[in-house]
Model the fold of this input.
Amino acid sequence: MRTEWCRAFPGVAGEVAQARHFVASLVAGHASVDDAVLVVSELATNAVRHSLSGALGGWFLVVVGFEDDLVRIEVIDQGGDREPHLCDVTDQEEGGRGLLLIAGCAKDWGVENWPDRRSVWADLAREGV
Done:
């Protein structure tokens, strides 16, 4: 059975830290806190920077789901023109590595689009499973 916790945040950069605290408090003892904090930090930052969530009055939603063998970290934003994807980056580029980092620590990750929002999620292994 899946259990979910969610919280909405204003779509401003300063709220990414609050999203990290929210996720860390929930996953402690269930999955790697470091990996979960990395995932939500990258996804929430992308929501604020690259989606309509970063516009005046925007928001993003963080969902933490617990299943028998995994913890899903999901950020739902207000969508936008650009589809999240893995980038080919050089050593000289400052950004563009967020989804690569997530792909490296997650069992799986993906994107779901709806007309008025988008979900980007990553599944982390449960501890002790």
